[in-house]
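Cont'd.
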Amino acid sequence: GAAGLIPEIDRRKYSDSGRHTPERSDINFLKEFELRLLNMFGLKRRPTPSKSAVVPQYMLDLYYMHSENDEPNIRRPRSTMGKHVERAASRANTIRSFHHEEAFEALSSLKGKTAQQFFFNLTSVPAEELITAAELRIFRDQVLGEAGAGGFHRINIYEVFRPALAPSKEPLTRLLDTRLVQDSHTRWESFDVGSAVARWARESQHNHGLLVEVLHPEESEGSEEVETNRRRHVRVSRSLHADEDSWAQARPLLVTYSHDGQGSAVLHSNREKR
Amino acid sequence: QARQRPKQRRKQHPRTNCRRHALYVDFSDVGWNEWIVAPPGYHAFYCHGECPFPLSDHLNSTNHAIVQTLVNSVNSNIPKACCVPTELSPISLLYLDEYEKVILKNYQDMVVEGCGCR
């Protein structure tokens, strides 16, 4: 792969000298050359993602929304971004997405309430990057069947200041954002978690994660089946009934908007050109 | 007459003069498509060509380049002005980093928009 980095004319020079197998110094030269290119992109080494790596649809949507490479044959997905995203992207030149660490999640589901704790590892955000905004995106799936649809849920997003000291105890939290939603719709909800994430990026020791609480106020009125369907409406945990692929694209997503002080914002580039 | 006009123009500004040339960088050529999700490549362009004496307006020169070219015409020890990018634009890359995190980043000065003698 690295040999492809040498321009055609120089590749011919190598073959003219009668050397078919590159010497160690040539390989080192290529590695150094590639490293310089990667440094230019802000990377320490060449990324080697596994085949299981998932690219969230939201990041692809953001790319197509802001990309300058307008290729007419590619079908553009319908934009689902709100004005808050445009505002956040207009101040940032880097947008990062994070899935939570499933090993650290903690789910509690009590009568009329579901609470899930998420931990997002933000250590890959470089120190020189200033986080200007962050959103937690939660997917909710329409409740099927007339009997179950039409109910309301309250989604509360908390920052965890101190984890629960014992299973019976509550963690110490503060409310970051809240919304009342109707379960007859399928869509992503975006919650503002910028203040907490900006602090975690500066002081990672304060990162104890987020707590997502879903309140089901009308739960006692329905049958057991309806209640179960309603509980599945907000996708905060893996479902035993769904396949791996659906969870990969439906799991909560933390998106950070940051600027490293170099160059223009992601959104501006397109507008300036127009 | 209409057909002859472009020929006359070409004579005035030979194709060897400083201008922008096509250059497409294909990430799959170097195996970078493994981690760059989009785009598959991009039109980077490059600048190449002569900066002849006297520098005409379309060569997008500076006062200094005009003076340097003038001096070169009488003293070849002083090089001619160079054909370089005068305007660059950014591109957005969507990629997976070393930790498999998905990043959308705007990189400055990746595409040559204009060339000139400087």
